[in-house]
Amino acid sequence: MTLYEPVEAPLPVVERPIDEVVAVPPHARARRHEDDGMLGLGLLAGPANVIMQLARPEVGYGVLESRVESGRVDRHPIKRARTTFTYLAVSTNGTPEQQLHFRRAVNGAHRQVFSTDESPVKYHAFDKDLQLWVGACLYKGVVDVHRLFVGEMDEQAADRLYLQGRALATMLQVPERMWPESRAAFDRYWADSLEKVHIDDTVREYLYPIAASRLRGLQLPKPIQRRNEELALLITTGFLPQRFRDEMRLPWGPDKQRSFDRLMAGLRVANRVSPRFVRQFPFNVLLKDVDRRIRTGRPLV
Length: 301
Known about the structure:
This is ER-bound oxygenase mpaB/mpaB'/Rubber oxygenase catalytic domain-containing protein. Residues 40-268 form the ER-bound oxygenase mpaB/mpaB'/Rubber oxygenase catalytic domain. InterPro entries: MPAB/Lcp_cat_dom. By secondary structure, the chain is mainly α. It has one domain (26-291). It has 14 helices and no strands. The chain has helices at 29-34, 46-54, 57-64, 77-93, 96-110, 128-150, 155-170, 183-193, 201-211, 222-238, 242-248, 254-273, 276-280, 283-296. The chain starts with 28 loop residues before the first helix and ends in a 5-residue tail after the last helix.
């Protein structure tokens, strides 16, 4: 007879069901609400989210073969990042006017993204199933970032974020009826969709520099470059559920998980003591930039 029962280690944030919520003290709710979908530290999860989206072969080859030169993350990473982060900000916190203009701009770019006879898989950027997958990946990323840096969510906060998350898909061409009706339904959709995930050698080779945060044309001194890539791979891989790590052949284990957890804990403390403007940078600035671009007629994407 043992004197204690073994305690099962909690699942890492990126593996936990979306429908899992906890009790949150009333005094902690106000600040958490104001950061919904607008947390600058979420940029750290960006490369992992790109990998998740492109893990569906049709999305992976759609991006890899894209004719939209300015939108290629391998050639224009800063511009692509600005477009993606602006999309997140506009979808979750933008005005109806901002959302209308940005939707039109995205649609214009997507009209040029479709497969050819030489493409390994058939795809079209207006495929609603693929757009739903992209929106679902973005929403899961928002939830993971919120849990890591803002804190756990109760039922009210989780429902509020889920309602906002729906816009990440419906800002594309996804009708509201296609978005899972509840958080539990989202978990079922996510589990089923993982069966369609596959990253082949071609897409993996395209994604690895993104995982390691290699910028095209920028070469740092070798020791600095190596350390920078090690840190980037730790963060990127830490934000990936195990299924995607396996597809990318990125090694992971308890030691790496502890390193990732320690880093995230330090960033969480820094985030909590930062003023709201700093916490929400650059998303708050990007929303103002959208207004400026609409007013002056400059491209949004």
